[in-house]
Amino acid sequence: MKYKSRTYFILGVIILISFIIKLVLILEYKNRLTLSSDDLNYVKSAVVLIKRGIYTFHNLNEPTVFVTPTYPFFIASVFSFFGYGLQGMQAVRIIQAVISCVTILLTYLIAKELFNEKVGLLASFFVAFYIPNIITVGFVLTETLFSMLLHLLIYLSLSIAKKPDKFRFAVLGILWAVTTLCRPTIALYPVMLFIYLFWEKRFKIIEIVKTGSIMFIAFAVIMSPWWIRNYLEYGEFIPLAASSGNPFLQGTYVNYEQTPENIVFYKLGKNAFETNKTEVEVAKMRIKQEFKKDLLRYLKWYTVDKAWLLWGTVFYWKQFFGISSKFVIFTHYVLIYSSILGTLFVFFKRIKKYSLIIMLLLYYTVVHCVYMAFDRYAFPLIPLVAILSSFFFTTVLSTALSKVKKTVSAK
Length: 411
Description:
By secondary structure, this protein is mainly alpha-helical. The protein has helices spanning 2-29, 38-52, 70-82, 86-114, 117-128, 131-135, 143-162, 166-180, 189-199, 205-234, 245-250, 272-293, 295-311, 325-346, 355-370, 375-378, 382-410.
């Protein structure tokens, strides 16, 4: 009990200090916490939703299927209570700071479930003081909310795997839907979950079919208003979002460099939905052409280069508190490289036990290698990276201490 109390005290201190730093950031920088890109569109979307009851994004006069609604509705709900001036913006940021602290707690719980309390504490420390994780709560972007939802989904999955029942899988299906409506990339999560349940927990195929059906029904119930709305607006079944065309097309340009020689011009559609369809077709055409033109260079771009853009740079685009980008990238590299070593260590243990988080990391890497890869997309997965990194450091430290004790005992 004393050990547990001490552990929870340390965890509480870590979370509290992290929250205080975030609060100071928010109060100090206020509306300077902006990237002047998607964050402004999310704010405009929420305001239009409150004022006119129309869900828009880029074009404020056109109903959108470009982004899914969880995050814009979250902002709109906060604005409805606090207004959409500075007070409302600060309220969104402070609530995001709280949400970020929940992610720190979930990091500890996932690490404890997979490894032990020591790994959990170190991982929570890494996440709490990872500079981009402190800064990002100030941006009106999906990263903070999605990161929390993703890790709640993982933690509940690990918990339910120990004591499975129909009701808990229905709850998991609801959470899966809400998370998907925040970032559609997670839509294929059950594939990885059920591979894990079959491989590690020895679920039978019939059990997977039953529980998978329950999850999907719950998922469909939550998603159905979005599906119906999209059909009424565009006359087609749009299950997630019609936003893959642009990142798919942009991802066909090596190093994202568009020149007069390689750029492809195409006719815009009547609306963003039609333009998205065109961009998908243009992207497919470019991929075929470029692979024929220079197979090795293009293959490298779609594997090594994009993976590096995803993990090798850091989501810290503006400096705050005088913290240099060099320092942030150094700490980022420590996490990334030690997590790779931690993953290698895992392969010599029960790889099946840790397969869910490893599959998620690989899945996101592959998806963004197909589409567009840059550090912002990797940000929500940093807690998983921190867990594997912490496993590496605690393993090395415990091994070193064990050798020291043996040496001392021998003398």
